[in-house]
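Training component of the fellowship. As part of building independent skills, the fellow (R.M.) carried out the full modelling exercise for a liganded target. The chosen ligand was 6-O-phosphono-beta-D-fructofuranose. The inputs are recorded below so that the supervisory panel can assess the work.
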Amino acid sequence: MKKEIKTIGVLTSGGDAPGMNAAIRAVTRSAIYNGMKVMGIYRGYEGLINGEIKELTTESVSNTIQRGGTILKTARSVEFTTVEGRKKAFDKLQEFGIDALIVIGGNGSLAGAQVLAQEYDLPVIGLPGTIDNDLYGTDSTIGYDTALNTIVECVDKIRDTATSHDRIFFVEVMGRDAGFLAQNSAIASGAEAAIIPEDQTDVDQLANFISRGFRKSKSSSIVIVSESKKDGGAMYYADRVRREYPQYDVRVTILGHLQRGGTPTAYDRILASRLGYASIEALKEGQRNVMIGIRDDEIVYIPIDRAIKKDKPINQDLIDVLAVLSI
Ligand code: F6P
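Fellow's submitted model of the complex:
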């Protein structure tokens, strides 16, 4: 018989993402509503290993839904990747009477949750929290929409200079090995091209853009480049243009961590609230080892090992739309 879940632990792990606080709030309030106790684990798995754990109440999550970052803080723990580290983590869960764990984070964080769940037969629920949107099975991850809007706001500003000076700008955006931020920010900002890791055809994406996108009647241009190492990043393309097309005036902007911060959009707050609420419903239903996602506006449960395979596809429509609209 399955043990009744009386106390849950919640942590955020990996890169912070706007909306994580809304998720913590939703998990906390939904759990309390269902008569459970909630323990907040600080600094991700690192804090779990060190016992940085404090009870969360309805009040302790007040006034947080609008705040970026994570009130629980976050970390990327090296120790947790070891068997010994995970043993320490599990001992702490037992010491604090935690029966189930809710992990809010990206790929690596959910992978960690999965290993812990398997080694110790622990009920674990994952919530997709990353600006990268690279978890399979959910249309969107918590933080992605906010980051996308931040990028678009920045590119709108860069466009003023690009146009005034007749320049080509290569704007590098985050996303790790996924091109969702790059592709969609390019569409939303009216950029001339996006260079993304998913587009691994033999076609030289730069030559393609120069010949197709940068037509004679356009004297300035913006190319959004995914940070993925597979493509070489914005610097690589700028250097190539300087060498191969010296007639163009080129600049690079790397947006960096400003993409991760800031007030979450309404979309991210609602998404995080729904997923947080659903995580408690899932535990009540006896779900284990699943990530809660959203697909066509419906809550779905995806086995964590499926969600973290790093094979979420980019819709070909998005590539076609940009190609046609940027001519
Ligand atoms: O996964 C989120 C993310 O912001 C990626 O887009 C980026 O590659 C990485 O984290 C940066 O990590 P850090 O903040 O540890 O430098």
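The panel noted the following from the submitted structure. Residues 86 and 116 are 7 Å apart (CA to CA). The domain at 7-143+264-309 is CATH 3.40.50.450 (Rossmann fold).
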